[in-house]
Amino acid sequence: MGSVFKRGKIWYIDTYAKSGIRIRKAIGTSKKLAQAVLADVDSKVLRNEYEMSPKDILIDDLFRIYQEYSETNHRPCTHNRYRGVIRNFRFYLGYKYPYLKKVSQLDQMVFEVYKRFRRTEDLSQLELPEHLAKLTRQGSGKVKTSTVNYDINVLRIIFKFGVDRKLCAENPCTGVKSIKVTDSKSPRFLNRDECIRLLKACNQELRSIFYTFLNTGLRM
Q1: I need a surface site. Which of 6, 35, 50, 51 has the fewest CB within 10 A?
Q2: What value, to the nearest 5°, has the Cα angle with vertex 196 and ends 193 and 198?
């Protein structure tokens, strides 16, 4: 029958319905609970009592629906950033996994590979077919860890949107963790002499403002 497996701290079940449809679910941090759930599912499958969720959607259709929602409910700058994340992920799927078309076909490893792909692949060096080249921007290259984490967070939001609106059964981003940021620049602070020069260069109005910033730690 089925099996249980662990990714990170999360235990999953993996089995099949009689129709051949795969049943894979995240259960939690307890192996015993995962084994109990698997036994229950396998038992229901044998008795034809397990109800397969018919909810599924094409990845492109979910992205299209979410972009329409975002255009109405988000600020233009946020909408444009979300649209950029969608474009990047669609390019990645088309380049690495062109056979993945539905949300139900995505799993955690697809996103783990995506994180590595975004951090290490220079798209400007790839020979791309025309339909994929349209999804890239000139000069697209390796990105910072913070950008990869932003992408994953946006994708998690999009798939949660699909689950909440019953467009798909599960969020495939569940359990995908952010990468520890080690490549960001440390903030630079003005030294004492620089603070004095700044205040001397200000008129009276600006001097009061910057004096407040410097002495309270307020951000501009």
Answers
A1: 51
A2: 110
